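Notes continue from the previous slide.

Worked example: a multi-chain complex. Inputs as given:
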Amino acid sequence: MTVISSYIIPVIFLTVLIASMVKKKNAYNAFIDGSRSAIDLIVGAFPYLITIMLAVEVFRRSGAAGVVADFISPAMRIFGIPKELAELMLIRPLSGAGALGVLENIYATYGADTYIGRSASVVYGSSETVFYISTIYFSQTNIKKLGPAIPFALLSTFIGCVVGCFCLRFF
Amino acid sequence: MNKIWPIILIAGLTTLLFIQPSAALDAMVKGSHDAVALCIRLAALYALWMGFLSLLEKTGIAAKLAKVLKPLVRFLFPSASEDSNKFITMNMSANMLGLGNAATPMAIKAVKSMDDKSGRATINMIMLVVISSTSLQFLPSTVIGLRATHGSQNPADFMGAGIIATVVSTIVGVALVKIYAFFRKKREKKNAAKNAKLPLQRT
């Protein structure tokens, strides 16, 4: 799988470059035009990124995720989710690096091949930094009302993780 | 975000107040530093992928890809313009290949092209956020690598359950947005009818 996937990028680039030669398009100019707009995207995203990352770093450093996880762990047990997993699920949508720290902690404490270790792998591998996505996607617009975008994204990820962890018992 | 952001910060600051008040400023500065560092890294990556995206557009490959995936995109994003369609297709393809850094700039462009200047996220935008958040990751290499270093016998053995988890979350997410769209449209129709009936009160 890793062998195949390492071929994907160069093959895609080659295909597109050859296509541009065949169709006699100016590949060089096109690439420059595209990369120019990257600066606009970054300038637009910058205030959003700094605002969210500042809060997330405070949240991560304080260990508040652990405190909240303690608090909600009785409710989580109904779904068959241990306390450490609850902490991972809390921090995952906020910070990829923070979640990786919790994941490593779980592996070190419980072992990577235990049920908790494998559930943590499913949770980390099948979820995304939802807050980062939803902030940066809207950075080029004036949209302030996101509607239920974030709750829907979180809820569906959560349900997916619960089902995935449940399936682990049979694999 | 106006509700969530203060909650996150208040929760973090309150906890720090009890355990380590001196770390508060330090953490905020570090968060800002990280954001600047991330922006610089993203500037390079976005420039690369935006350049490539523009190549795809010029060669007409983007339009062709959009045509192939049209039935799927039409179902998920009804009434999206040709332009939005193209960006959405690119975003979904990049996500499926596990190229998160390529997917993001295309999603930003897609959202911008869908903006109706109402200040409110449209149903299609919500769908895009949900799909990107629950998107299929075929190769979570970070997790596999980390499990291997922690002495796992078979570091990739959670993949089956992982794929089930992403498929379930994607289906649930799409269903949620579709149900929401149904009610939102109904409400908007009702409001429109009400406004038409009472033209005097509108002023």
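Summary box: The longest helix of chain B spans residues 159-197. Residues 83 and 170 of chain B are 24 Å apart (CA to CA).
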